[in-house]
Design brief:
Helix content is about 60%, strand content about 0%. It has about 350 residues and is an all-alpha fold. The chain has a domain of about 90 residues. The protein has a two-stranded antiparallel sheet with strand order 1-2. A hairpin with a 5-residue loop joins strand 1 and strand 2. Pfam families: DDE_1 (PF03184). InterPro entries: DDE_SF_endonuclease_dom (IPR004875). It comes from Alternaria tenuissima.
Length: about 350
């Protein structure tokens, strides 16, 4: 009775179907579920092909794929058609007998197309149009152009399909990265297992702790970034100082080399001057030597005069008359005077 009252309050028409007839009279079973299953299988197959072996099917992918199939299937037109197919609205009992009848669709003329530009999948229309424009179907040029257009169309379709597939995979992978974090509840001090209730104040405290934790993490990341920036600046400063020192040492070395070169140049000039002066003196001597003439002959020395014996004895007596020299003395450490003999 409650269900009937609910339908009456919400303006829902309640229809009671005969037993064992839902597979023919239920709009969901007859029309909606089959397209929904087909759409979901198509979405799943497309997702697997789009992944190209790079993504893995997870439980979180079910609702994403199912919702696409649901939105594409449960449209207003299809829902109305489901009631019309089962003969419920508008009420047509005889329509159930015709549910297996299939209309043969008329073949569409590929040459009549409202679009002014053909896409890669319309390569048959392109070839037909080409044959109409160019006469002589057996020409080699026409066949070559036709094969080229077909190759370009196929390559374009494959690249477009691969591009769309990779976009879908990247979009799905990006959704997987955004994972939610569970609140970390701190147990009570007197907690010893069993059931535990989380009051609103406790939930708010857990949220506050989580926000504080995230703020601390961001502050720590900022601090690390600042430290890295300071280290980089310090490294640049040290490199600059080292470069200036190397340049200063290079300038000092150049100055020392310059002074050394100047000294070497001056020494070479002095040496050259000395050599020049020496050569000048030698040249002057060579000029003066012929002007001196021959040296006078040395005079012969006469015979020495003999001395008398009395003169020799007188010289000896003079030498003997000289007093002998006083002996040398030396004072020892004990105060005694010692005589030194030759």
């Amino acid at each position: 009775m409650d269900f009937i009252n609910y339908c009456d309050q919400n303006k829902i028409l309640l229809a009671i179907l005969p037993p064992h007839s839902t597979h023919t009279l239920q709009p969901l079973d007859v029309v909606m579920f089959k397209p929904l299953s087909t759409a979901y299988s198509k979405e799943l197959t497309t997702h697997l092909h789009s992944g190209q072996g790079l993504s893995v099917i997870k439980k979180s992918d079910f609702f994403h794929l199912f919702w696409k199939a649901w939105v594409s299937t449960f449209t207003q037109g299809l829902i109305l058609r489901s009631f019309e197919t089962t003969g419920i609205s508008p009420l047509q009992p005889n329509v159930i007998l015709q549910r297996f009848a299939k209309d043969t669709p008329e073949a569409s003329d590929s040459s009549t197309s409202s679009s002014s530009v053909y896409f890669g999948k319309d390569w048959l229309k392109i070839e037909t149009l080409l044959r109409k424009v160019v006469r002589g179907e057996s020409s080699k040029e026409l066949r070559k152009i036709s094969r080229s257009l077909h190759h370009i169309s196929v390559q374009n379709s494959l690249l477009h399909h691969e591009n769309q597939s990779l976009k879908e995979v990247l979009k799905t992978q990006k959704k997987h990265k955004n994972k939610s974090k569970a609140l970390q509840f701190q147990p009570h001090k007197d907690y010893h297992g069993g059931a535990e209730f989380f009051s609103p104040s406790r939930v708010e405290k857990a949220r506050t702790d989580e926000r504080t934790k995230q703020q601390n993490q961001r502050a720590e990341e900022l601090r690390k970034a600042e430290m890295a920036k300071l280290r980089h600046a310090n490294k640049l400063y040290n490199e600059k100082i080292a470069l200036e020192r190397r340049e200063q040492r290079a300038r000092e070395k150049e100055e020392r080399d310059r002074v050394k070169a100047e000294k070497a140049k001056e020494a070479a000039e002095r040496k050259a001057q000395r050599e020049h002066n020496k050569q000048a003196r030698n040249a002057e001597k060579d000029v003066q030597l012929p002007q001196r003439g021959k040296r006078k002959a040395s005079q012969s020395v006469g015979p020495r005069k003999k001395q008398s014996c009395g003169a020799v004895a007188a010289r000896r007596s003079v030498v003997a008359a000289e007093p002998p020299a006083a002996p040398r003395t030396h004072t020892t450490r004990s105060g005694r005077i010692a005589t030194l003999h030759n």
